[in-house]
Amino acid sequence: MRGRDEETGEYRGESRSQQRRDALEVLAICEQLVALTDAQLSRLPVPESLLPHIREARRITSHIAHKRQLAFLAKQMRREDEETLDTIRDALDVKGETARREIAAMHRVEAWRDRLLDEGDKALAELLDLHPEADRQGLRQLVRNTLEERKRNKPPRAFRELFRQLRELMLGGEPAGDDAVPSEHDELP
C-alpha cells in the first residue's frame, strides 16, 4: 500500500506520480516496439507472450483502437519482471545509437559526393589521399556524368551511382562505420 506507515511515519512504495511516469515510459517502449519491423523485432529480447499483442497493435488502423491496444500491450509489459523491461530498454537504446551512427555515416558520404561535384579534382585528390584504393578514373567519370545529367535535366542515375560507389569505398559496403575521416567541409554529428 501507498501512503505513510502508521507506526514509523515512513512512506511505503512509490508515489502515484512515479507510477504514472513508469507507466508512460513503458507505453513509450511499446510504441517503439510496434514501430519496428518483424526482422528488427526478432533481434530484440522480447518475450514470446508479447509478440501477438505487438502484431495486433500494428494491424489496427483506427486511432482509438490502436491507442487502446497500445495501452493493453503496456499493461502486459508491466506484468513482466523488471529485468526483462531493462533488457528491452537497453536493446532499444543500442538500436537507436546504431541508427544515429548510420545516419551520420550517410551524411559524410553525401558531403563527399557534394564536394566532388562542387570542387572537382581538388576534392577527388583529397579523397584519394584518404582512400588510395579508390578507382580514380571511375569516380571522375561518374562526376562528369552527374554534372552532364544535371545540365540536361536527366534522371539522376549517375548521381545515385556516385553515392553507391562512395558508400562502398568509405564504409566498406556496410551501412555504417567510422572509417571515413571527415574534412573541414563535412558536418560533424
UniProtKB/TrEMBL annotation:
Keyword annotations: Cytoplasm, Ribosome biogenesis, RNA-binding, rRNA-binding
Keyword field contains RNA-binding: yes
Any one GO CC term of the record: cytosol
Localisation per UniProt entry: Cytoplasm
Highest taxon of the lineage: Bacteria
Any one GO BP annotation for this protein: assembly of large subunit precursor of preribosome
Gene3D superfamilies in the record: PSPTO4464-like domains
Primary subcellular site in the record, as a coarse category: cytoplasm
NCBIfam families recorded: PRK05255.1-1
Protein family per UniProt: Belongs to the DarP family.
General function of this protein: Member of a network of 50S ribosomal subunit biogenesis factors which assembles along the 30S-50S interface, preventing incorrect 23S rRNA structures from forming. Promotes peptidyl transferase center (PTC) maturation.
Name under which the protein is recorded: Dual-action ribosomal maturation protein DarP
Natural source organism: Lysobacter concretionis Ko07 = DSM 16239
Annotated gene: darP
